[in-house]
Amino acid sequence: MALLELLRIPDPRLKQVSEPVQRFDDELHAFIADLEATRRAGPAAVGIAAPQVGRLQRLVIVDCTQLRRPVPNHGHLVLVNPEIAHWDGYEVGREGCLSVPDYTGNVIRATHIRLKAQDPRGEPLELALEGFEARAVQHELDHLDGLLFIDRVVSRRTDLFRRKVYQKGRGQP
Questions:
Q1: Does residue 76 register a pLDDT over 70?
Q2: Are 93 and 77 in contact (CB under 8 A)?
Q3: How far is 136 from 166, CA to CA, in rounded Å?
């Protein structure tokens, strides 16, 4: 497994829309292993999307199991070609991002989502997600459409905050 280079703003590749994954082969599985190693190396990273390392494919990893306070979750998720089938409720919450290391921001997200995706073998998945896990998945799915959390803050003047330090284990999506 290799650590991949993380793209950071203002890299224009972060604004591009990703293509669906077509091939579920050994090369994809090796990339997923490298992407996971890169996520684990990032400070407090619960999620990562393929576009954050320059691969414009619809693939994300989310794992909320290591948070200091437990939240309802499905464990380690590798989601290929994910799409939200339904959402409900909304809540404002603070988010950070490996690709935007100097800021956090308040973002409105759905509190409950139903997700359709494929696993790394191409098998279909359907999940009902809530709370922080739903927020983390929505954050990562935005990367697939060329969006960053800073594109979703209501006001950059009142809802965007300079990060003092990355605190290990804080669990920012």
A1: yes
A2: no
A3: 17
Residues 89-133: tens digit of each pLDDT? 999 999 999 999 999 999 999 999 999 999 999 999 999 999 999
Query: Between β-strands 124-130 and 160-162, what pairing exists: parallel, antiparallel or unpaired?
Result: unpaired
Contacts 24+ apart (CB under 8 A), 124-131: 125/79, 126/85, 127/74, 127/77, 129/74, 130/72, 131/71, 131/72
Please give the radius of gyration of the chain, using alpha carbons only, rounded to the nearest integer. 15
Within a 10 A sphere around the Cβ of 73, how many other Cβ atoms?
Answer: 20
Catalytic residue among 36, 91, 123, 140: 140
Answer yes or no: 140 catalytic.
Answer: yes
**What predicted TM-score, i.e. pTM, was given to this entire model?**
0.91
As given in the structure block, the two tokens for residue 116 are 């359709």
Return the bridge partners of 92, or none: 108
CA distances from residue 44 to 24, 62, 90 in whole angstroms, order as listed:
29, 12, 24
Rounded CA-CA distance 47/68 in Å is 15
Helices (H) and strands (E) in the chain, counts: 2, 8
Q: Amino acid identity of 14? A: L
